[in-house]
Amino acid sequence: PEVNADAAAGFGKKNIIANPNCSTAQLVVALKPLHDAATIKRVVVSTYQSVSGAGKDAMDELFSQTKAVYTNDELVAKKFPARIAFNVIPHIDVFMEDGYTKEEWKMMAETKKILDPKIRLSATCVRVPVFVGHSEAINIEFERPITADEARDILRKAPGCLVIDKQEAGGYATPYEAAGEDATYISRIREDATVENGLALWCVSDNLRKGAALNAIQIAEVLINRKLISAKKKAA
Hints:
Blueprint: H1 22-38, E1 40-49, H2 56-71, H3 102-114, E2 120-127, E3 134-142, H4 148-157, E4 161-163, H5 175-178, E5 184-192, E6 198-205, H6 209-225
Helix pairs in contact: 1-3, 1-6
């Protein structure tokens, strides 16, 4: 809704609105205001995705494996292809013919669909031993110059974004702070000297809220506020 709310007008054709992938949702919320300001050409993103994105069984597996490490019990991997406790797994969803995973393909396809089909995007999606909250390291190349200070000011005013960006220990957001919150947190905004008109930033959000439930509620609010749907009349 912060990015392409106008698209809701066409929902009546099939009476279906697809919630985007959780990792895509927080990404495009951060990219949209920057794209409006300087036009994004290319994005390279690496994700650090919590186990809750794979469901309750995945959360239980992280808990049981972590406990097994401390009690010297056998570690059993059922939900993930490798142990997740004290480890990271560069594999989310199935592999495709080009070597990318389906999760990575979703980020590419959905960013184009939601934000701009001209944007080129490459993603590497990684599962990390965190219960709730997805993190993303994002590198962006723009058509026009934009400084880190300009980006900071733009994002502070953008809907759904909360900038926490102090260049000091603890002056950034982590999944722990984002868990249970609605905002998409943005930190570590800096200029990338290796590419013309480049920025790098860190983005964190609660994948169960902005990545799923909250976003669905926001979509419903758009439909109601724009009078695209109305409540059924109560029976007499």
